[in-house]
Amino acid sequence: MRIHFCLLASASALVPAAALAQETPPSDPAVVPPPAATPVATAEGQKRIYTPADFARFAPKTAYDMLVQVPGFSIRSADQERGLGQASENVLINGQRIANKSYGGGAGGATEELQRTPISKVARIEIVDAASLGIAGLSGQVANIILTETKKATGQFEWRPDFRAHFAKPRLFAGNISYSGKSGPVDYTLSVTNNTGRGGFGGPIILTDKDGNLIETRDEIYHSESDLVTFQTKFGIDGPGSSIGNLTLAYTPYWAPTHIRDDRTFATGETRHRSTITKLDGWYYDVNADYEFALGPGRLKLIGLRHFDHEPVITTQILHFDVDDHDEGVRFSRDSRIAETIGRGEYHWKSGKNDWQVTFERAFNSLDQ
Fold it and tell me: Which of 8, 38, 202, 311 is positioned for an S-S bond with 61, CB 3.0–4.6 A?
């Protein structure tokens, strides 16, 4: 049994919600309810265009809330392979690929950026064919989210508490908060996101031999917890001429303990108790930067990425014998440092009806443990 609540708010308005118990009147079989309304696009050439007004009935708070309601469109996440490679995520922002990666289980790329983008900054969503964009690696339908430029600062937060009936602790602090604004040629977004997880199971376990004779009974309880708190700052820079750049700095401390405890009773009457506790308290940081500018007949985009993860884990298992009151145990410890550094360049130009692109990339991965 799981009980889930979700609360959304913006800096300009806070709407409390309460669950009220009420009786539902019996439905009349002669009355056919009207079909649920869906957003209707405006056709413009080969595009389907949606505006925020098309999604008003869903009360969206972020650009991502709008995107998931676009009919007939499925979000395809970016590949999480070594390096960056060609574009694979079918979501763009202002016609640009968001060239970053997700290392902590998040969405990554444009999808993660849209979860921090308030709806007040969305001008429209364009659903286009990838062939019309000239971005290597894309195919099928692509969503291009057009954001408006505004000097007005906006903020928002989302709270997603979660409660389970048995074994797992409540998730009280899941959610995110962000603040966006513009100062001169620089757009900025400051955000804090807490991705949490709570799991658990338990109950009696019965072990028998092939003939159904009782060997052992256990009463076991397991629960796990995880908290990943990401502090992120993103800058968008409108440089001289037609040049544009982006810089993202993120730091994520995380905690992921697990606990397993069981009481064992053998057919002989002997009892034992075992506990297994794993402690994982680590952190990682990410730096993503790109800069695009005109060069000769085309445009050159330079991309740099650095990820570093410090991942120390300690597992302690203790087995207690009631017969002679003697404990046995084992402890496993591993201290890992995982890193990836990527440098990539993309040069794009047009020649008649053809689009050309030349790319080069260097990726270096390391593991020290």
Answer: 8
